[in-house]
Amino acid sequence: MIISCIIGIVLSYLLGSIPFGYLIAITKGIDIRTEGSGNIGATNVSRVLGRKYGLIIFFLDMFKAFAAVFFVPLLFSGITFPTTPDNLLVILCGFSAILGHAFPVFLKFRGGKAVATCFGVFIWLAPLAVGISFGAWVITVLVSRYVSLGSMIGTVSLALVLLFVLDSPFGADIYLMLLSIAVTILVIAKHTSNIQRIVSGTEKRVFAKKK
């Protein structure tokens, strides 16, 4: 059982490590790591290749994380359907997929900012909280025109929503609560350079007004 769980966690990390942004950009003759912000995630792909490709990358990155919490525990632990967010292996598989995207072994641990993968994990484990945090993301982006700020506000709101909607956030639901706190810290840490550019006024905006 322990060996199966370890295999499941490792597989989840490898799933998360699949660099879809890098792979699709390479098919266009572009190393996405040398273009735009140098990030392999959906936002940078959208800026370099267009919004269509950005959406494709977002959904692929989301799905690989969803697969880690939905399919992997079923395959390697004997957990019966449906998997539940209070199961520690499910939480560890989700976190491993997120870490895989942020620090992919296939790209020398230089990965994305984990927003889409977080969405993929929590859309299964806490869909209501994801819906609310997505609303916070939309409002923030529309008002500020900063995708990076929206991503940070969205993850912070996810943790705050879970704190209030879970029956026992520091009891029976503590694994899910701790996961939300961990990914919030990770996402903010991965956006350190964006925070610096926002403060200096050099961060790129979406829906920029035409001169």
Key features?
211 residues; globular; 69% helix
Question: How does this model look, in words?
Answer:
The protein has helices at residues 2-17, 20-27, 42-49, 51-70, 72-76, 88-102, 115-125, 127-144, 147-165, 174-190, 192-200. The N and C termini lie far apart (62 Å). 45% of the residues are buried. The protein is built from 11 helices and no strands. With 211 residues, the protein is an all-alpha fold. α6 runs parallel beside α10 (174-190). Helices cover 69% and strands 0% of the residues. It has one domain (2-200).
Summarize the structure.
It contains 11 helices and no strands. The chain is an all-alpha fold and 211 residues long. The chain has one domain (2-200).
Number of domains: 1
Average residue-wise pLDDT: 89
Morphology: globular
Instruction: Tell me the radius of gyration.
Output: 17 Å
Largest sheet: none
- Tell me the distance between the termini: 62 Å
**Uncertain residue segments:** none
Order of helices and strands: HHHHHHHHHHH
Determine the fraction of residues in helical runs and give it as a percent range.
Answer: 55-70%
Q: Strand portion, in percent? A: under 5%
Structural class: mainly alpha
Structure summary, number of beta strands: 0
Number of helices: 11
Ordered list of secondary-structure elements with their pairings:
Layout lengths: L1 H16 L2 H8 L14 H8 L1 H20 L1 H5 L11 H15 L12 H11 L1 H18 L2 H19 L8 H17 L1 H9 L11
Helix pairs in contact: 1-4, 1-6, 3-4, 4-6, 4-7, 6-10, 7-8, 8-9, 9-10
